[in-house]
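Please describe the entry underneath.
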Amino acid sequence: MSETIVLRGVHPYGEAAADIVVRDGVISEVTGAGAGGGDRVIDGTGLIALPGLVDLHTHLREPGREDAETVDTGSQAAALGGFTAVFAMANTFPVADTAGVVEQVWRLGQESGLVDVFPVGAVTVGLGGSQLAELGAMAASAAHVRVFSDDGHCVSDAVLMRRALEYVKAFDGVIAQHAQEPRLTENAQMNEGALSGVLGLTGWPAVAEESIVARDVLLAHHVGSRLHVCHVSTAGSVDIIRWAKARGIDVTAEVTPHHLMLTEDLVRSYDPVYKVNPPLRTADDVAALWDGLADGTIDIVATDHAPHALEDKDCEWGAASFGMLGLQTALSVVVETMHRTGRLDWRGVADRMSVRPARIGRALQHGRDLAVGEPANVALVDADATWIVEPALLASKSHNSPYAGLELPARVEHVLKAGVPTVANGMVVR
C-alpha cells in the first residue's frame, strides 16, 4: 500500500483552492478545504494543480547514443518539467523497429520509474523508407506500441504510407508523420526566404512540409485511419489541417514549444543551437501556430526533445546536428506564449499538454481529470515564479537549449506519478 498524501490548498486548473487526497495511487478526495491529515502533507498554497503532462514526441537516445541522453536522464528532465509520461522516438541505434528493441526501451523506463516511457515504433525497417517494420509484433509486445513514426525521416513513398495507415487500423495505432518532402529539402539548413539568401544557407521551403501534410490527410481519409502530424511549423500546414478536420478526417497535429516562441531571425547568429528540423520559421508562421493551437486545429504541444552531445552542436552550422532540448522548458514556454497572452486558460493548457496527447497515444492512465477515482498523476506549478534557463543545470546529459539566459515563467514544484512523488520542491526524488 502506498502512503496517503494530501495536496493542501492547491488550485486545480487555476480555479478555487482545494485539498486533493491521494490514497493507493488514486485521487480519493477533492474537498474545498480542511481534508484530514495523511502520511505526508504537501503545502500547495497558491500552486496550480494540473494533470501530469504527457509528451508525445521525445528523443531519449538510448540505446546507442548514451553520450547524449539516457532513458533515465531524459526521465529526470521530463519529471522536472511536470511530465508523468513521454513517448520515445524510434531513431535509436539499433532502430526501434522490432519488438525486442521497443521492449528494451520500455523496460528501461520501468527501471527509472520517474515517468511512464512509451516507445514509438519505427514505420519502416531501419528508418529506410522501403519496407514496413514489424508493426504488429511491436503492438503485441510488452511495450504495447500504438504510435509509429520514422521521425527524422519522412515516409515519402505514398504507397508505403498508405500500407502503414492500413496496417495500424487493426490495433488502433496511429502513424506520426515527419512531414518533409526529401527532394525539396536536399542539404536544407534553415527556412527558405529572404533571410536564407542573405545568410547564404540552403533554404527549406514551407511547401516541403505542406505538400506531405496535404497528401497524408487525403491518404488517411481514403483508408479510414488515424494520422498524426509531427512538429507543424508553417501557416500553410495549419490551414491544411484545419481544412481536413472540417471534413471529418481523423488527423491530429502537434506544435513544439520552440516553434511557438522562436523565429528564423535567431539564425543570424549562426549559432547551431538554433538549428532544428523543421527549421525555425517566420513571425507570421508563429502567429498562425498560436491561432491553430488556441482554436484546437493543432491538438497538442510536444517537445521534440532532441539532446545532442557537445561535439554535435559545438561546431560550424553546416556540420551541426538538428535539434534542441525541450522537456524542462516546455510548460514555461507555453505559459509565456499561450497562457499569459490569454490564448489558453489553465484547462486549455492541461488539454493540450496532457489530455489530448494521452488520448492520441492511447496512454490510458494519463491525461485524466483531477477527480475522485482517477489515477493520481499530478503536477503542481508555481505560476508566479520565474527562472533563468541555465543549460548546464538542466537534468539532460546534453546542454543544447535555445533558451539559455532567458527568464521564463512558471516553475514545477511537485509531481506525483500514480500517487508516488517524483519531484518535490523542484528536485527529483526516488
Observations:
- The domain at 5-48+374-428 is CATH 2.30.40.10 (Urease, subunit C; domain 1).
- The longest strand covers residues 378-388.
- The radius of gyration is 21 Å.
- The chain is about 30% helix and 20% strand.
